[in-house]
Each structure stands twice: as C-alpha cells, then as structure tokens.
Write a structure and sequence with these properties.
alpha+beta; two-stranded parallel ribbon; 371 residues; 4-stranded antiparallel β-sheet
Length: 371
C-alpha cells in the first residue's frame, strides 16, 4: 500500500501541481548566500526581502515545531503567440503574468492539500501554506526536495519542464519521507548570462535586481533610471530573456492550467491603446491579473518608455495627450519618450508643458528631453 507521503504526492498531482517533493524543515544550506546578496544591496528597493533575513533561513520561525516542507511547482509556460507578431508597437509581458494571478490559483490548491493532510493524518497537524510570499527561501528548499536545480539565471530548472515554474509550499509539524536533492545540469553553459539585456546576472547564480528589467518594470515604484530605459525595448511587464535562451526550455511543455493561459489584453497588447487606458478601464481590464501590481501609473510609465523606444513619430499625438495625465510619474516618462522621438510637434508640446508643469520631477524630465 502507498505510504502517507506517496498519497500526499498523488493528491498534489490530482490538484494540478506538476511537481511535488518533500524535504525536512531544517535550515537550507545556502542561507548565507542570501544574507550576502542582501548585504551587497542587490535587492534594490525590495525592502520586504530584507526583513526577516534570519526568519527566511529557519522555517521554525514561521511555524513553531515544523518538521517537513512539501514543495510544489506549477508549469506556467504559455503557448507561442504565433498569431501576433512581436513588433515594437506592441508591449511584451512576461509569461507568468499573461493569465490570472498565480498566487490566488496556487494558494487555494495548497490550502486544499493542507486540509487533506489534516484529514488523513492519524493525529492533529499544524500547517501553513505559502506561494512565494512567505519568509521562506523556497528555491533552496525546492532544490533539496528534488524539484530541480538552481540555474545560473537563479530560476529553478527541471529536466523535463525547464524553468517556467511557480513554486509554493505546505509546512507541517509532521515527519514524512524525504526526497533526494536534485543534481545540477547547467554545466559550462552561460547563455542566460550572455542574453541578459542589462547584464543583470553579475556572476553565475547571482542577479543584481537593480540592473534587471523585471525589477525596473514591476518592483521599482518611482522613475526608471535613464540608463535602463532604452534597454527595455518593448518590455512593459517583466522580462523572460534569460529563460527564453535556456536549452532546458527548448522542449518545455505548455501549461495544463487554464487560468495561466493568456488573456487578449496580455498577449502583445498595442502600446498606444494601453497609454490611453483610464483608471476605470485599467481596473476592469486587469482585474485578477498580476499586472495590477504595478498600478496604472507603473504600467503606463513602462508603456511610455516602450513608445519612446519605437522612435516612431506616429506615437507623438498619443504621447502629447498623455502629457496631461493625472499621474506625475506617467507625465515624466512621457516627456522622455517625446524627447526620444524628437520631431517638431514633440518639442513644441514639451515647450508648452514646461510653462504649466508644477511637479519638479516632471519639469526635470521635460528640461532633459528638450536638451
């Protein structure tokens, strides 16, 4: 007959998890690497990563008496968008954000799994579930639970599924059967390091978030540093370049989870249409989507940069209109975009905006764009 651990795994697969492994809840071996990463400032403005550094290394902190972590992964790889050409007038959105928010989808499944364990165990079980929101170094635990290895781009890689994986875990105060750690198979390959548009992978297995386009487009709340704007191209939410070139992703299957499939608004949306989204339209369009995270002002900031990168005079009328946006963050990046395109209409509009603009940061952007 199946052991309890085997039954838990079978149930996890039934719920739609692609991978599942079990590991003891002792501190992961490379917790120190995380502390060093924080000390070097690589987290940028992501303050939530700096809190509870110790807690992250010891699951006991999160659930007193914890004995085991059941780590799961879901494949989110989207079908290739053959119908829609990747042209510079459309925005590129990272694959994980093209469907519904995976946090909600996975958390519900994990809670169902915890209930199953509590129901089937022969004694009361204390448990907790997380989907990359808890203070848990989940990639280290995933590797130790046999789900895959830590790639040079710092994403987890599985031999069959590649790196299009979302992780979650159930913590329980119950001893279970543990899996063997995964072995690493990056070898001498450095494709991800070479492909990164901003050289954010500063050493194998180390990403400086402050250089990463994913960080600039999603996590950064304020203005995007000038240096990185032209490197963004048409990426308006995240970046998948390091995963796109990974040889282990060549045969990665498409996701089986319907909620992860792209919505019409996330598969290469038109930049000008996005720039024209009212606050109300933004809310209804991105309801239930991870893109809500940037708020309207963050997304339109990114869209303005992408339009500036097209250098296309046809974008000027929409940008001029957006110079009146209610959000200073949007107006500032729109000014930059007009400066990048730089035809007579763009400069005339910037001159006019200079007379009426009251926000010092936006004025600064206008001045720079005019010179």
């Amino acid at each position: 007959s199946m052991s309890f651990s085997e039954r838990i795994k079978a149930y996890a697969h039934q719920l739609g998890f692609d991978l599942v492994g079990i590991t003891p809840a002792t501190a992961p071996p490379n917790g120190q690497a995380y502390s060093d990463w924080i000390t070097q400032g690589f987290a940028g403005e992501m303050g939530y990563l700096e809190r509870h550094v110790e807690k992250r290394r010891h699951p006991d902190y999160v659930l007193p008496g914890v004995r085991s972590l059941i780590v799961v992964a879901m494949n989110y790889r989207c079908p290739d968008a053959e119908a829609i050409p990747d042209d510079r007038h459309r925005g590129k959105i990272a694959q994980y954000a093209r469907g519904l928010d995976y946090h909600d989808v996975m958390k519900e499944k994990l809670l169902t799994m915890l209930e199953y364990i509590q129901r089937e165990a022969d004694k009361p079980v204390q448990g907790k579930v997380y989907v990359d929101t808890g203070p848990i170094l989940e990639r280290d635990f995933a590797e130790r639970a046999g789900l895959g290895w830590y790639g040079k781009h710092t994403n987890l890689i599985h031999k069959r599924l590649g790196s299009w994986l979302l992780l979650g875990e159930v913590l329980v105060d119950l001893a279970l059967d543990y899996d063997r750690p995964a072995t690493a198979h990056c070898g001498t390959c450095t494709r991800c390091i070479e492909a990164c548009p901003t050289e954010a992978i500063v050493a194998p297995y180390v990403v400086d978030a402050r250089r990463c386009i994913s960080y600039h487009t999603i996590e950064l709340k304020g203005r995007i540093p000038d240096t990185y704007r032209s490197m963004m191209g048409n990426r308006i939410f995240g970046c998948d370049d390091c995963q796109d070139v990974c040889p282990w992703n060549r045969r990665a299957p498409v996701t089986q989870e319907p909620t992860f499939l792209p919505r019409p608004w996330t598969e290469m949306p038109g930049l000008i249409e996005l720039l024209q989204l009212t606050p109300e339209a933004f809310r209804t369009t991105f309801k239930g989507s991870p893109i809500k995270r940037t708020k309207r002002r963050g997304l339109l900031r990114n869209v303005a940069v992408a339009l500036g990168n097209t250098k296309d005079p046809n974008a000027v009328p929409a940008l001029i209109e957006a110079l009146d946006d209610e959000e200073p963050l949007v107006r500032g990046h729109v000014a930059w975009a007009l400066g990048q395109i730089g035809d007579d209409r763009a400069f005339a509009a910037l001159e006019q905006a200079r007379q009426t603009e009251i926000d010092p940061n936006v004025l600064d952007e206008i001045e720079k764009a005019l010179h």
